[in-house]
Amino acid sequence: MSESRTPVKTSYPITDKVREAMEISLRGVEELLPEADWLQKLAKSEATGVPLRIKLGLDPTAPDIHIGHTVVLNKMRQLQDLGHQVIFLIGDFTSMIGDPSGRNSTRPPLTAEQIKANAETYYAQAKLVLDPARTEIRYNSEWSDPLGARGMIQLAAKYTVARMMERDDFTKRFAAQTPISVHEFLYPLMQGYDSVALKSDIELGGTDQKFNLLMGRHLQQEYGQEPQCILTMPLLEGLDGVEKMSKSKNNYVGISEPANSMFAKILSISDEQMWKWFKLLSFKSLAEIASLRAEVEGGRNPKDAKVMLAKEITTRFHDAASADAAEADFNNRARGGIPDDIPEVSLSGAPMMIGKVLLGANLVASGGEATRMIEQGGVKIDGATISDKGLKLEAGTFVAQVGKRKFARVTLG
């Protein structure tokens, strides 16, 4: 029988600083596995002065991110602030396979040009959260391309089909007789091999990535390395407080959207939901958040806390002056005022039906939405609520408003 490939571990002292780092590591996480191993990695790092290697692998399948995506990035920033090194891994090789995680069909692969463009845009946005000085950008084609056919076969020999079929999405697709391509088995193997190539100490991901993250642990042991720990973060519910934040569900806050819109959207979440957002999105300490929550439970207006959260996040993705201006704009709107900076639109064809005016000013997406908003009392012209769906507007300049946040200064000729 061959000797174990797992390196012999040395036990390092658990100091107060290590315990504090562990508390920060556990903040808001879904799972940290195994906790005892991570505690020892933190202790080893403190004792030796060698930063730990924090891996996040991203397949750049879409170029834009919302604040739900930043939950994992925030955790990485917390670990960076403890002195550790983040590896921002662009899956340019694995993107050509297509990650089957959570899917009931094969994901179409991306072209090299799409991958490059998406990766550049994604990192430009991620830099708003991460510390670039402690961020190493890598592409997994660096070691995946040289692996070649021989290396791929040798890698595939280190895992069984039975174990691969334990993955939930594969199990469901097999039971439903939905096709599973052989190349899809290569995806978790290649993601796990990334951990071998990078010698990562911990890999972060969403809860849907757990199987792939554990693959990294397995393969590191196979290659004689100390296995990485895995850390999964919960999914952030969107503005509705129910569904996962998603652009398709229109319950998201985009990190590149205007400061005024970002601030107002965050102010719209529920008082209870606010505390989860604080835990997952704020850089305030847990002690500060607990103190603030105690003040609110003691009678302080919860809106005060929500404004703090909205200003912190808006400042992060814009700047402090923009956050202050967004707060002033929000307060002005709350008093029924008109924002200073609203779109100006010129239309011709007076007299014009109100629905057509709203459509032409990009305040509604369809005539049906215009009718519905009028029926709900959500349309104003120069501050006066409109109830007549058949209203025709004469030539002139006026401010049209739909809902609380959509305005346009319309010149109708």
UniProtKB/TrEMBL annotation:
ATP binds at residue 247. A motif ('KMSKS' region) lies at residues 244-248. InterPro entries: aa-tRNA-synth_I_CS, aa-tRNA-synth_Ic, Rossmann-like_a/b/a_fold, S4_RNA-bd, S4_RNA-bd_sf, Tyr-tRNA-ligase, Tyr-tRNA-ligase_bac-type, Tyr-tRNA-ligase_bac_2. It is found in: Cytoplasm. A motif ('HIGH' region) lies at residues 60-69. It catalyses: tRNA(Tyr) + L-tyrosine + ATP = L-tyrosyl-tRNA(Tyr) + AMP + diphosphate + H(+). Catalyzes the attachment of tyrosine to tRNA(Tyr) in a two-step reaction: tyrosine is first activated by ATP to form Tyr-AMP and then transferred to the acceptor end of tRNA(Tyr). This is Tyrosine--tRNA ligase. It comes from Roseateles agri. The lineage of its organism: Bacteria, Pseudomonadati, Pseudomonadota, Betaproteobacteria, Burkholderiales.
